[in-house]
Each structure stands twice: as C-alpha cells, then as structure tokens.
Amino acid sequence: MNRKNLFVFVAFLALFFTTSFTINASQIGDPWTADQLMEPQTLVTIIKAGKGNALPVILNIGSVEAIKGAISTGPVSEPDGLAELKKQLKGIKKDKLIVIYCGCCPLFKCPNVRPAFKELTAAGFTNIKVLNLKKNLQTDWVDKNYPMQDVR
Hints:
Elements: H1 3-20, H2 25-28, E1 37-38, H3 40-49, E2 57-60, E3 70-72, H4 79-89, E4 98-101, H5 113-122, E5 128-131, H6 137-140
Parallel strand pairs: 1-5, 2-3, 2-4, 4-5
Helix pairs in contact: 4-5
C-alpha cells in the first residue's frame, strides 16, 4: 500500500471510530423528546413545595432506592415490574404529571425507562417526564442529599 492510500485508509478508520461510537439520545431511539426530560433539581423543587394535587406521580421503575413520594414498581424490563406499573396506573388521570426514573445506571443505557415510557404513552398518558439521571440515582440524587423515601 502506498503512502497516499495508507493515509486515506487511516483517515477513514479515524472517522469511522469517532462517528460510530459517538452516540446521542436520538441515535438510540429514545421515545421521549428533550422537553420531556426533567432535571433532578426541578423535581426537588416540586417535592419541597409539596402542594397536594400539584405533586406529580413519581414512579420508581427500577430496583434502586426510592425518591421521596415515589411508588416502586420493580424493574419494568421484567414482566412482574411491567405488570406492577400497569396496576399502579389505574385511576390516574391521563393528563396528570408523571415522573419516571430508574437510576440503576446512566439514563442512556437504562433497560427500564424506555419500556416504562412506551407503556405510559400507549396507555394514553400525556404529561410524562423522564428524570434525567445522567450517571445514576446515587450520584445525581442521593449524594446531593435530595429527598429520599423514609426507610424504617
């Protein structure tokens, strides 16, 4: 292989590896839009305001600790967790604010959030937010001393 061809080949490999491993949410096929992400501090503010009916339904759809006021369903990527999610949705108004989170791992690779979001959408819920836990619940919530469920 001559120098020119080698250069082109190396340039191609460099381009291939930098573009094929740069993944963003739209490439994964996230079912939510950017405005359906909720930053943790926003949820903290809502929880601390604590205004009865204004509080969202917070669903812990994974297997980690629970944020204050959250309803735990278990991992929604498993049949029992998905069944529990469906059960918990009964009686909730379709326009009620629902915040879902897992927190087992970074949001972009979470096995539970996408199935939960899709189930909520299919069930007709229109005000769904995904808690934007970029690393995990421990780092993005617990370590910041944000409100957690009382453990007794």
